[in-house]
């Protein structure tokens, strides 16, 4: 099992694949080139040999015809026999002279003298055509040339000159050249592979450096950031890794801060309740009933505050876990906002804040009604609670839509948010004015819940604020939920 994993890792290695690619790119062209050259050499050598032998055969055939060789009364028969023997000696071949009755009257091998030969090549030769054939398997060239009087175009064909010559020397040269080509290919392949591996090892040095530095960072040693800019690619990887580490560092700091804030927020009501309980216990039976009631009322308020914090935390946890399981359905957003405004109207009346809803058109969208109701309620309720305008506060909620999104704007003329705090208002337990938040019972989780719910719907939220003039939240959510 371990060996198979090692082998699989080796095959998946970029280095091994590049080495194999270099080997193939070197070996394949070498093999193709070698075979191409050898085949070209063989074809060229055979073609030259055929041309030479054919030329000699034609000359010899003309001499045979003019010397009346078939009548056996020519004056230079011995001279022609000598030329035939010379041809067979030079080209290591065999010559047959066939008369018009297909009878062999001359065989340089003295094997078939007087025999009759009937073959396709000889028959075609008597049709005044030259026949050439190369047998690469048995290494010989066979030619058949008609014998006729060259000075008389109307003369009949008197016979055929059949020549077979060996190509063993061409085959020997081919074998020798093949050995040389294979040797050169092996040496060249080994040299190229060797230097290719060296170059690859050099090229992989920055990648090895990158891997080592990541391992050091993972183990807590070395630098906190990568700085491998040998190649553009390693520089991009280093930059992306550094951005990832920065994000993880911020996330870890946020997690630690969140845990600290949760501990603090949960501890504060408990501390208050303990102080109140200790005060009651220290007084014993002498404490008046009114004081008991006052202290118990304070304890009840602290319990309510603790419960609200826990409920908000549970809402955040549920949203984080159910991001992929939204209960999406088609909802009338106008009716949804009217219901929310109706529930919040008593709070607005108590704060003496005018609550107005303005709808520009009917809007129906695919949403999770429970989660988005919680988000809109938090936005509008915050606008009401943090509105301390002495001249008359208002919260203006407007709804609009186009062909792709619907838009919700929650605008108030309250105390506003400092510019430096705008980028932090969605952080859990973050408060712009902690003392004021405590007075109105805020937990610092409302906007975090709101943002999570809107992002789950593939939406966006932006805040604009001017201190002393008010705050505006703009929400954009798709009409159709896209998975």
From TrEMBL:
Residue ranges constituting the Histidine kinase domain according to the UniProt record: 261-481
Record-listed E.C. numbers: 2.7.13.3
Catalyzed reactions per annotation: ATP + protein L-histidine = ADP + protein N-phospho-L-histidine
Gene Ontology biological process terms in this record: cellular response to phosphate starvation
Origin: domain of life: Bacteria
Pfam family, any one: HisKA
Keywords for the protein's UniProt record, in alphabetical order: Kinase, Membrane, Phosphoprotein, Transferase, Transmembrane, Transmembrane helix, Two-component regulatory system
Molecular function, one GO term: phosphoprotein phosphatase activity
Name of the protein this chain belongs to: histidine kinase
Organism in which the protein naturally occurs: Agathobacter rectalis CAG:36
């Amino acid at each position: 099992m371990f060996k198979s994993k090692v082998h699989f890792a080796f095959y998946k290695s970029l280095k091994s694949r590049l080495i194999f690619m270099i080997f193939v790119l070197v070996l394949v062209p070498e093999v193709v080139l070698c075979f191409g050259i050898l085949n070209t050499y063989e074809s060229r050598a055979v073609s030259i040999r055929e041309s030479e032998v054919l030329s000699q055969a034609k000359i010899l055939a003309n001499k045979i015809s003019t010397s009346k060789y078939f009548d056996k009364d020519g004056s230079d028969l011995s001279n022609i026999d000598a030329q035939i023997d010379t041809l067979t000696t030079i080209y290591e071949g065999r010559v047959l002279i066939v008369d018009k009755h297909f009878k062999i009257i001359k065989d340089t091998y003295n094997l078939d003298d007087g025999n009759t030969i009937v073959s396709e090549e000889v028959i075609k030769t008597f049709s005044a055509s030259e026949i050439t054939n190369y047998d690469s398997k048995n290494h010989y060239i066979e030619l058949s040339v008609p014998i006729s009087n060259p000075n008389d175009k109307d003369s009949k064909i008197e016979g055929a000159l059949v020549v077979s010559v060996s190509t063993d020397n061409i085959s020997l040269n081919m074998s020798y050249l093949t050995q040389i080509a294979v040797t050169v290919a092996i040496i060249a392949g080994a040299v190229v592979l060797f230097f290719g591996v060296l170059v690859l090892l050099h090229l992989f040095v920055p990648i090895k450096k990158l891997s080592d530095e990541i391992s050091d960072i993972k183990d807590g040693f070395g630098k906190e950031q990568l700085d491998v800019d040998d190649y553009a690619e390693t520089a991009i990887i280093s930059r992306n890794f550094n951005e990832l580490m920065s994000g993880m560092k911020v996330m870890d700091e946020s997690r630690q801060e969140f845990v600290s804030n949760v501990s603090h927020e949960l501890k504060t009501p408990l501390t208050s309740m303990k102080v109140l309980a200790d005060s009651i216990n220290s007084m014993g039976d002498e404490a008046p009933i009114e004081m008991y009631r006052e202290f118990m009322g304070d304890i009840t308020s602290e319990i309510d505050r603790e419960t609200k914090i826990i409920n908000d935390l549970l809402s955040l946890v549920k949203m984080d876990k159910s991001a992929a399981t939204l209960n999406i359905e088609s909802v009338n957003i106008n009716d949804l906002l009217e219901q929310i405004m109706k529930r919040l109207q008593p709070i607005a009346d108590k704060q003496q804040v005018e609550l107005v809803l303005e709808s520009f058109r009917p809007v129906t969208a695919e949403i999770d009604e429970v989660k988005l109701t919680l988000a809109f309620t938090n936005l509008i309720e915050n606008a009401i609670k943090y509105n301390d305008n002495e001249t008359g506060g208002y919260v203006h909620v407007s709804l609009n839509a186009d062909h792709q999104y619907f838009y919700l704007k929650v605008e108030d003329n309250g105390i506003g948010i400092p510019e430096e705090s705008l980028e932090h208002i969605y952080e859990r337990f973050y408060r712009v004015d902690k003392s004021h938040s405590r007075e109105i019972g805020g937990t610092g989780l409302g906007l975090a819940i709101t943002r999570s719910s809107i992002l789950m719907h593939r939406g966006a939220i932006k805040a604009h604020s001017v201190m002393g003039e008010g705050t505006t939240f703009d929400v954009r959510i798709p009409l159709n939920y896209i998975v």
